What does this fold into?
Amino acid sequence: MGSPGKKIFAIGVAVLAVLITLGAFGSAAAQAKTIRLGLLTSMTGPAAATGEDQKRAVTLATEELNAAGGVTVKELNAKLKLEVLIGDDQTSREGAVSGVTKLIIEDKVNIVFGGLGSAFGMAALPLIREHVVPYIPTPSTPLFTRTNDLGPDPSKFMVFHYQTTGLMFGAAVADFLVKDIKPIMAPDKALRVAWLYQDSPFGAEVFRGFTDRVKEGNLPLETAAGERFKVSETDYRAQLTKIKAMSPHVLVPMGFRGETVAMLQQAVLDVAFDMKKTHLGPVCACADDPLYYKDLGRIGQFTTMMSLYSTYATPKGAAFAKWAAFRRNYEKKFGVLPGLLGVSAYDAVYVAARAVETAGSLDKKKIIDGLGKLEMDQMLLPVKGGKIKFDPKYREVPFHVFAQQMLWDDKAKELRPVIVWPPDLADAKYRNP
Amino acid sequence: MLEPAVLLQILLWGVIIGSVYMLLATGLTLIFGVMKVVNFAHGELMMTGAFLTFLLWHALGLNPYLGIFVSMAAVGLVGVVIERVGFRPLRGSAKINEIFFSIALILILQNGLARIFVPTFREYAQIRTPYATAVIDLGFLNLRYDFVILLLLTWAIMLGLYVFLFRTGFGREVRGTSQNRVASMLMGVNVQRIDMLSFGIGSALAALAGSLYGIINPFSPYAGTMPAIKAFAVIILGGLGSVPGAVVGGLLYGIVESFATFFLGGSWRDAFAFVLLILVLLIRPEGIFREGA
It folds into this structure.
């Protein structure tokens, strides 16, 4: 045994070593910590291409935020980088359950976000509720935050819906038709509107949004037909023939991109709708994709589309200056242009980052509070008032939907849109064929 | 009061899609008639044909109406290979093996096509012919050139098949094998060659059906499932193994489907035609035509 002085010295050295080691580990742990965002989307199955669009847009957003130093988390007194983990819903409800399980249990994400199919996001909801994970879905159904009777659902308080709902779209269709189409097609009588819409919660919600708006606003619109078609239907000729026989002023074809292109082509080419007598549109924003302009061709001339993000047009106003930079960066990095769902996921990353910053913590409950209190400038998608803020009742964002009209561009040899409604975003007037 | 012109249009849409069902069902019934094999992947062979024609047009600029024949030959060859390496070794074993083999084929073909085409063309592709926007104006409707060509081509191929089956020695062997396999073998017919040939012709007809479908409608790798189910219904309706039954059944099915959609709505498109099938089976369980007729 050595002297007591030597003993004290040895203990001192040991304590110092432990402290240094702990300090070093602590610092390494802080450095390694990231904000883990779980993107739940379709990476395989029929919707894989749209899921890929979301993945690309999310990559861009996280790279931008990380390049700017990351997100300040007050509780950890550190700026943390964002890390995106993917849960593949395999374009199916069952896939969504396994995808979200991976994100929550294996990846231990702080927030789940994204997605394109309402049914898949809804299938993931029970697990999200069970584990109380903040969730920012980007599919369209309002049922993410509302019950079947469309009231708010307190059991879904961790869900913050970042997408235009079918109800919002339907209401916007009614407003646009009254303002821009009725004065031309039916100036002195009710405008007869025929719907051909997808037989799904999405189609039903848009149609319901339209009829509710007509009823609430006592608008001079008459629903001439409400024909439904099965999801992924490709032959609409019999129904279009029936609708044409009713001589409506407007035909609203409401489906996804492929369905919409087929409906319009068959309406013009096969059933011979006269566009001077029947306006074709507006179609759904979900059709807005570079392939829509390419596939539809010249027959899409003068048709209209409700939109939230346009592939080619930009609404007027300083708030939309960032669209050009986003499109440029996206195209430069990935060689293609983004679509609406990619843009929604891009925005959702910024919303998630701001929610963590507002919460000042990675604690899920605090992030949920952060989302509730969040108020930030609009990113890419237009928001009424220019501020992203989830309304306390439905936890939805009041998006500013606009209508665009398709015109043939001889130079591009494709259709190109101009924004025709509402006046505060429009850069042109509706052109009557 | 419905105008006759409107009803005529609905009839036309029914005949057009019915022609596609007819081709698909004829191929299926030929395979079943000769080999007594139920190939559930027939719809996927249809989509393989559609995508091949699409690829030849999109990548090489080949007129789709020429591409169809290349596609038919290629898918016919695929059919021969499937018969040779898949169904033939399973012959004589439990039926469940054939069923699972064809289900595996469905998954392989669907996912293979999706992997190649979906990243570029998203969920749908469509074959555009040089006559895509050319129409004959009949006043009450535009009759597209593509529809006229579809009808002419379908009936020309069906006529060719009739001549082959009923006016050639090879066709006689096919019909003989279909009616009595053992007797045909005893007569010196190489039934294995007949199996291969029938599967090849059936697959080529599926490719033709798919290509024509892809010209008039958008399609995806997953779009073959429902037409194939309908083709099964058609051959039950027309009589299992009966080529005339497939022709009549296909057309009838398309027309009923079109009128059901018109009167009852798109949600009833598939259901009502199956109601017709149930009715026929209740009244005439052997189908409109007898098996193997």
Q: What stands out?
A: Chain B has eleven helices and two strands. The longest strand of chain B covers residues 135-137.
